[in-house]
Amino acid sequence: MDDIPTTPIIGKALLQKAKELSRMPRKEIARRCGYVTVTNSGRARINLTDFYDALLAARGLDLNPETSKDGRGREPTYLVSVHRNGQIVIGSTYTQEMHLKQGDEFLIKLGYKHIHLVQVDKNKTDETDTDFDDEDVDSDY
């Protein structure tokens, strides 16, 4: 019992320890990595979910990214609808993801059943170039 840490191992140390113990059963690996709690009745309970989440996080995959929420608990869906007044609103989650700032300008290009927003490059001398090839358009939209 002395080889069981009192706090769960995380990060690269968790990956290394799990690799060392890879021939053992999953519950034993989780136990030896510190993913154990003691219940009110005194029994040891293996926290496999926390162990798996920690393994994924150690590998750089976060299943619950808090940065993707827009502050009201909703996740971005990349889907919008036209409001009653005819407007389409693109939420701040998307503009933040694109690192847009107040005052950034876009050209609106209408196509057959699609709208393209093309960011105006303020450093470019000829901003009247509004042509684009169909190859530049993602065919999924």
What does it look like?
There is one protein chain. With 141 residues, this protein is of the alpha+beta class. It folds into 2 domains: 11-58, no CATH class; 74-141, Pemi-like Protein 1, Chain: D (Ribbon). The protein contains 4 helices and 4 strands; from the N terminus they run ααββααββ. It has a two-stranded antiparallel sheet with strand order 1-2. A two-stranded antiparallel ribbon has the order 3-4. Mean pLDDT is 80; it is low at 134-141.
Largest sheet geometry: 2 strands, antiparallel
On the 0 to 100 scale, the average pLDDT is 80
From the 3D structure, determine the CATH topology of the largest domain.
Answer: Pemi-like Protein 1, Chain: D
Strand order of the largest sheet: 1-2
Helix vs. strand class: alpha+beta
Helical residue percent band: 10-25%
Spatial shape:
elongated
Strand content: 5-15%
Low-confidence stretches at least 5 residues in length (pLDDT < 50)? 134-141
Radius of gyration: 25 Å
Short description:
The chain has 141 residues and is α+β, with helices and mostly antiparallel strands.
